[in-house]
């Protein structure tokens, strides 16, 4: 059932006291699904946690059923990552886990020898040397194993990143546009983290490995400690009490975190205090460079300072960011558990005092044993904390695993067809039959009942006002989206029945909202036809056809120029002292070869995009039969526009061409068919076809096309 949160102003009060302490009222209004708290000037709404059975040993795993289900993804990850590196890490980690217990055993034996020396008044030098050497050998071995483990960790982490980078790339690259834009699918795709070298799978496997090692360390140390104390005559009950107390401290710590944590819960925080909002706005006003000119020109500095002081005094210590108030709230609700933690931590020392009182004759050994137990107990607590923390992390990381492997289960919204589309060397026919379309999530139609037909080898020009749906026509023809209603036919067959690979190979498209890829200029063009991406002659020919060859020659790195490097690849230049002359900066940039981003005009960028489209048509086995161009000359100058259309005219009769434009002249005059769009229901934002025909026919009809033609022709009279 959907939850509702009341938006009425909070009735609690938050006041300042003389001692400067902040008093915040707790939950005083509860909705059906959310608790409400007032923290200073902030209103906090926290989802009521669901009541679920918990595994006692894993207090941070709240959904045991989901946890068990997610284990299959862990098993899948282990199978995928099975390699000599993984088994080497397991062996080294196990050896590292045993080394603390071995070191503790040698320390205990050393104490026994000291006790025997005191009792017998005779020193066994050989045994003492052996124990000392054993203790040193343990330390050296542990140091060596840690170095090996560190190297294996880096090597294994690199292996995991490469494996899942390939996995993620493959499954993200296959996603179609509607699915990629879908909010639910987008959230699942974000889990694969293609950027910045982050891979949660490596963290999950590492967390599992460390948890297992911590458990092994815990049990081996407890076993050795109990044996040492028993041999010393102090008794195992003391070690049991010590371990129990430290376990209690760990559990109480986790209870504190659970009671005051927002992990796994939905929450929202807002402030309705206008003084605080205005004060923060004034801070940003005087800090941002963009406002400095207005502040100085209008002499606002003194006024802003006085007003800021007034607001600050009015707020007192009730102001401040949300998280500082939340920290105070956390401390307040954890007073009792904090007291219990202190008592549990001190109880073993109290017990030792009683033991010392009963064993005054053996005081040195009791003190030595006390020091040994305290040191071991400290390590035990660290391991317990590590286990509990990694358990919570492990549960969330299993969720990440589910999300990562779930990417392969995302189904595209554009369903692949089953029929082959044979290559055509005389063009492809295209027909829209009563087609209507709504963009995903939109309630209005971008197209409404559109019908027209383009025969093989014809030149079709779609004209109309901005926002009339011209671009949408081309996206539907390329099957970027599926029509909401009606049928689109390619060579007489329903476009939904055709195999997508064949369709995309047969269509070359230039979108109005084209983008240049974050790769080199050469690759930007070459990716128009991946099969011949390494054929430099074809790439150069595509650049010539698109008019980009002259642009490329003027770039400093030519074909290898990056207009902008990928976000995760950037040069690191830091000058941590004054460099007024800029000499150091220039030297570093010269050494690294760092160049500022290459800026191109809109027309130059469009030439590269056009070249990429031409690249799709090149190659000895090219099967492109349909060219779709959406405003191909929008950013071109008249000369470049004329050159482009002259080259495109060479395709007439060989390939079907469909253009959308709002500029007449070079295209419409020679078109076999012109399709005119208009907004027919303005309040519904619906567009449809109002005219079709040749240039001469539409001029004689004196309709929308004739009026638009006359408007543009007026400028040249």
TrEMBL record:
It holds the Pfam family ABC_tran. GO terms for molecular function: ABC-type oligopeptide transporter activity; ATP binding; ATP hydrolysis activity. Keywords: ATP-binding, Hydrolase, Nucleotide-binding. It comes from the Eukaryota. SUPFAM superfamilies: P-loop containing nucleoside triphosphate hydrolases. Gene3D superfamilies: P-loop containing nucleotide triphosphate hydrolases. Residues 430-711 form the ABC transporter domain. PANTHER family: ATP-BINDING CASSETTE SUB-FAMILY B MEMBER 10, MITOCHONDRIAL, ATP-DEPENDENT PERMEASE MDL1, MITOCHONDRIAL. This is P-loop containing nucleoside triphosphate hydrolase protein.
């Amino acid at each position: 059932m959907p939850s509702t949160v009341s938006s009425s102003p909070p009735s609690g009060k938050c006041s300042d006291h003389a001692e400067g302490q902040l008093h915040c009222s707790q939950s005083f209004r509860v909705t059906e699904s959310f608790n409400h708290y007032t923290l200073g000037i902030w209103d906090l709404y926290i989802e009521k946690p669901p009541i679920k059975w918990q595994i006692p040993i894993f207090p941070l795993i709240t959904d045991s059923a989901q946890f068990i289900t997610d284990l299959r993804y862990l098993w899948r990850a282990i199978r995928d990552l099975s390699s000599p590196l993984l088994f080497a890490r397991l062996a080294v980690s196990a050896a590292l886990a045993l080394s603390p217990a071995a070191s503790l055993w040698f320390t205990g034996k050393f104490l026994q020898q000291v006790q025997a020396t005191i009792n017998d008044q005779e020193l066994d030098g050989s045994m003492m040397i052996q124990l000392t050497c054993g203790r040193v050998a343990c330390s050296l071995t542990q140091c060596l194993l840690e170095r090996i483990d560190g190297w294996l960790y880096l090597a294994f982490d690199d292996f995991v990143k490469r494996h899942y980078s390939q996995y993620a790339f493959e499954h993200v690259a296959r996603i179609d546009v509607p699915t990629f834009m879908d909010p639910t699918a987008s959230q699942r795709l974000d889990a694969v983290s293609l950027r910045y070298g982050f891979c949660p799978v490596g963290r999950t496997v590492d967390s599992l490995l460390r948890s297992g090692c911590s458990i092994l360390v815990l049990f081996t140390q407890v076993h050795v400690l109990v044996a040492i104390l028993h041999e010393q005559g102090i008794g195992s009950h003391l070690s049991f009490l010590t371990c129990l107390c430290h376990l209690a401290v760990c559990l109480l710590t986790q209870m504190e975190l659970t009671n005051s944590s927002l992990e796994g819960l939905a929450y929202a925080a807002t402030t309705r205090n206008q003084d605080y909002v205005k004060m923060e706005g004034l801070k940003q006003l005087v800090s941002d460079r963009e406002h400095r000119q207005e502040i100085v020109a209008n002499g606002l500095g003194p006024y802003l300072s006085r007003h800021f002081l007034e607001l600050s005094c009015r707020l007192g210590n009730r102001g401040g960011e949300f998280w500082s108030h939340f920290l105070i709230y956390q401390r307040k609700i954890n007073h009792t558990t904090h007291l219990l933690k202190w008592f549990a931590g001190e109880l073993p020392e109290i017990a030792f005092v009683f033991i010392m009182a009963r064993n005054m004759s053996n005081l040195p050994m009791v003190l030595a044993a006390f020091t040994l137990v305290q040191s071991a107990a400290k390590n035990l607590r660290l391991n317990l904390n590590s286990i509990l923390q990694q358990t919570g992390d492990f549960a969330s990381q299993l969720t990440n695993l589910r999300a990562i492997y779930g990417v392969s289960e995302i189904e595209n919204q554009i369903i692949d067809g089953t029929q082959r589309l044979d290559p055509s060397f005389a063009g492809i026919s295209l027909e829209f039959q009563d087609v209507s379309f709504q963009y995903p999530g939109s309630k209005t139609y971008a197209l409404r009942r559109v019908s027209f037909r383009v025969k093989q080898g014809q030149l079709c020009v779609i004209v109309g006002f901005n926002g009339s749906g011209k671009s949408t026509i081309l996206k539907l023809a390329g099957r970027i989206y599926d029509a909401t209603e009606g049928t689109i036919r390619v060579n007489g067959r329903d476009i939904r029945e055709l195999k997508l690979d064949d369709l995309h190979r047969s269509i070359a498209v230039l979108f109005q909202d084209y983008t240049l890829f974050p790769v080199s200029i050469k690759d930007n063009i070459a990716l128009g036809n991946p099969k011949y991406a390494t054929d430099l002659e074809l790439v150069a020919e595509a650049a010539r056809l698109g008019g980009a060859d002259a642009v490329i020659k003027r770039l400093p790195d030519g074909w290898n120029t990056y207009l902008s490097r990928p976000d995760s690849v950037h040069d690191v230049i830091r000058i941590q002292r004054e460099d007024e002359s800029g000499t150091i900066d220039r030297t570093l940039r010269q050494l690294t070869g760092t160049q500022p981003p290459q800026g191109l005009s809109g027309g130059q960028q469009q030439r590269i995009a056009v070249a990429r489209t031409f690249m799709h048509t090149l190659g000895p086995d090219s099967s492109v039969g349909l060219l779709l161009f959406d405003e191909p000359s929008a950013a071109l100058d008249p000369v470049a526009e004329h050159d482009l259309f002259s080259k495109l005219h060479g395709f007439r009769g060989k390939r079907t061409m469909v253009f959308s434009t709002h500029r007449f002249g070079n295209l419409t005059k020679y078109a076999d068919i012109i399709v005119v769009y208009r907004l027919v229901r303005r309040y519904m934002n619906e567009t449809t076809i109002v005219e079709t025909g040749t240039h001469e026919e539409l001029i004689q009809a004196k309709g929308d096309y004739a009026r638009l033609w006359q408007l543009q022709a007026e400028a040249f009279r």
